[in-house]
Amino acid sequence: MIRFLIFLTILITIGFSQEYPLIFKKLSTPLYDSVKPISKLCNIDSINKCSLDYIKDVKKLKNFGYKVDKTQDKQEIKKYLFKLRKLQKKHDYILNEIHKNINKAIDKGDYKSFISLTKYEFDGLLKNRALFNKSLVFYNKNSHK
């Protein structure tokens, strides 16, 4: 019986553990989820420093978000929201740089670079309709390589 209760407690703890802070979850979750694809794209010269800063800031902000979840202090919540907005600006800048690099790869006909930029799941990577159409045409022409 004791084993069952311990097992049940562990199962409930794992089931209800939160991966990210709960405050402003809709805003923060995509930012936190984008760390993995951005870390794989750090080898691009134009976004290397910014992407490393972004990853470092995400770790700090996540820890700060957990503290804000516990305290529920209104001033801390405002600080957290402000920091999330700054992180969103960095995310948008990195996404813009990736778009520029995709366009450069297409214009140069560099299929290898194009594939390395587009193979990761990155939210908003090809949401720009013109870039998406241009990428599809380029991919269809060069997919046999």
Biggest beta sheet summary? none
Low-confidence stretches: 11-17
Task: Tell me the total number of β-strands.
Answer: 0
Task: Please bin the fraction of helical residues.
Answer: over 70%
Shape: elongated
Can you lay out the helices and strands and say which pair or pack?
Blueprint: H1 2-16, H2 25-33, H3 35-40, H4 48-71, H5 74-108, H6 111-118, H7 129-142
Please explain how this structure is put together.
- The protein is mainly alpha-helical and 145 residues long.
- Helices cover 77% and strands 0% of the residues.
- The protein is built from 7 helices and no strands.
Q: What are the defining features of this structure?
A:
145 residues, mainly alpha, 77% helix
Short description:
By secondary structure, the protein is an all-alpha fold.
